[in-house]
Amino acid sequence: MNIIIFGATGRTGSELLRRALSEGHTVTAFVRNPTKLGISHPNLKVEQGEVNRYIDIDTVLKKEKVDAVYSVLGAKSMFKRDMILIDALKNIIQAMEKSDAGKLIHVSFIGAHREAGKLGFLYKYVIPNIMTNLLRDHRDKDALVTQSKLNWILVQPPVLTMGDYNGKYVHEAEIHQDPSRKLKLSRANLADFLLKQGNDSTYDRKAVLVTE
Ligand SMILES: NC(=O)c1ccc[n+]([C@@H]2O[C@H](COP(=O)([O-])OP(=O)(O)OC[C@H]3O[C@@H](n4cnc5c(N)ncnc54)[C@H](OP(=O)(O)O)[C@@H]3O)[C@@H](O)[C@H]2O)c1
């Protein structure tokens, strides 16, 4: 595949980048600070730009046909709104709608799901009361994705960890009550799932919970 990653310098983004390159895919990393990437590879193109500047994103998306666009930008604070990342997603969607880009694979958060309360006390009471702004941002971004004209997948993981890849994770489009579920996911496992979605239509135009 030929893919673009927005957020390639982040913890999930860098796992996705390394996995994609190791599997032989061609990757464009759209970053604000290329020195942070710390990797060079014959199949890696680095594009420097600002996510809230539409022209920067439009220029990159116009360059060539891509199979999947990954949106793994993450807010710096759990408590404040981050309107730049909302603008960034608007820009990505608008530029994709005008281009020949394939599907948008956006990483959200399961806490933003309307039925997240089914997942227990943490998701029913703690997160909604403490991370109100973060949830509001995720819901706004999820709505941008689901209301777009694109082919998309909304990936909604629980808390992310720096654990190793082991391939032991489950995914489902419906939230079920399951007290035995761990509700955490390593970024390495998430990267594996994300990459597989690039050429799998199972969850096209759906939200999907992924957890260990
Ligand atoms: N953390 C969790 O437990 C958790 C749980 C569920 C879902 N998620 C979601 O999973 C995704 C990835 O999370 P993560 O924790 O792996 O991400 P992360 O390590 O915090 O990385 C965030 C990425 O976003 C970029 N970014 C942030 N603000 C930016 C801005 N204003 N302009 C340009 N780039 C900006 C960062 O770029 P720089 O490197 O240049 O700063 C970095 O590449 C996010 O969507 C997050 O909401 C996270």
Automatic annotation (TrEMBL):
<dbReference type="Pfam" id="PF13460">
    <property type="entry name" value="NAD_binding_10"/>
</dbReference>
<dbReference type="GO" id="GO:0042602">
    <property type="term" value="F:riboflavin reductase (NADPH) activity"/>
</dbReference>
<dbReference type="GO" id="GO:0004074">
    <property type="term" value="F:biliverdin reductase [NAD(P)H] activity"/>
</dbReference>
<feature type="domain" description="NAD(P)-binding">
    <location>
        <begin position="7"/>
        <end position="197"/>
    </location>
</feature>
<dbReference type="InterPro" id="IPR016040">
    <property type="entry name" value="NAD(P)-bd_dom"/>
</dbReference>
<protein>
    <submittedName>
        <fullName>NAD(P)H-binding protein</fullName>
    </submittedName>
</protein>
<dbReference type="InterPro" id="IPR051606">
    <property type="entry name" value="Polyketide_Oxido-like"/>
</dbReference>
<dbReference type="InterPro" id="IPR036291">
    <property type="entry name" value="NAD(P)-bd_dom_sf"/>
</dbReference>
